[in-house]
Amino acid sequence: MNTIYNSLEYVGIGNIGLAIIIFTIVMRIILFPTSFRQQKSSRMMQLMQPEMKAIQEKYKNKTDNASMMAQQEEMKALYEKYGTSMTSGCLPLLLQMPIIFALYRIIMNIPAYVPSVYTIYENVLNAIGGSSAAQKLVDFGTSNKLESILKQLNNLGVGENSTYTAEQISNLIIDFLYKLNPAQWDSLAITFPDASDKIALAASQAEKINNFLGINLSTAPSSMGFVPNVYWIIPILAGVFQYLSTKLMSSTNQAMAEGNDQSAQMMKSMNLMMPLMSVWFCFTFASGIGLYWCASSGVMILQQIFLNSYFKKISDKEMIEMSLAKANAKRAKKGLPPIDEKSVENRIKAAKERAEVTENNRMEVIAKQSVKTKESTDYYNNNAAPGSLASKANMVRLYNEKTEKKNK
After folding, report:
1. Which of 23, 272, 341, 385 has its CA 20 to 30 A from that of 240?
2. Rg of the chain (C-alpha set)
3. Structure pTM?
4. Are 201 and 122 in contact (CB under 8 A)?
5. 212 — phi, psi (to 5°)?
6. What contacts 313, CB < 8 A, 6 or more positions away?
């Protein structure tokens, strides 16, 4: 992010909005291999779906340990047959998540990662008295709804009992200043009249680097009221882009998307909820976050169009052959024999046989237990109506007789 911003500044167009867009494009290109693997995994899951459902149907309502193990064994064999694994779809997401969380922190706190931006706000910090200005900023900012920073400033305990260093307090103030909108800069100049010149200069510089097509990226659309204005463009675009992105992604797994099972219903709900969540988040957070969200979704749409086009040109047979070839190459490195359909079928057959033997043994035990229970019941109900007082008395008498014989 620092390199991109400095490069833009070098050619005279230092702008955080443009830097965020380029930064997002670069990161999405770097993450493209994980998106490709995820798409491939979705396609393989679509091809496996009929056989997978057949296995699930076969073991439906069977909760015994043997059946569950047999089902798991058949599932493993099925994944092996197609040259994929149960974790192939999750791994790309797990790789992306920490990077995406890191990007979010960068966009939220750009001064912490771009020294030239930090300098703009540092000049104001020094002019208003450094860390000692914390209390005044709390009083100033209370009316400006900067709760997250103010809560930290309010709990600093500035003075002898402070648990924060002067540097930490200064960094919190920098974060505070970065989130000010133009109107709040004017209020800050009134609160610190002695530093008004430097505040005005910093406000001008902040406006220049944060302005993107008439939108101040440090300002949240929600702070501009609920009357439609230019700040609403970013949340609306975020929702539209997210909808298109999820629609394109769901089209790659048409069988699941058109189904009536639980996963299909969940996918349809997500296709509706994700765009609405995007609109809400981008309306609530600073517009810089919304711009990152829009840029990220926009790049993902282009990637998805390319991936959909690429995978449409590959037949199901070619897809399976490519997957098997890759899986066999990995097995060869480990000194394992290649996967072939016969060996997979043998594994499934062996799993079925083990399940049948275990189930037969279980049923045999149940049958024997039933016979013993019946014999015992008949023995104790001898010469008496079942459940009668006589049968209970008979049960006690016969039980005592059996116990006496054992003791002798």
Report:
1. 23
2. 34
3. 0.69
4. no
5. -135, 105
6. none
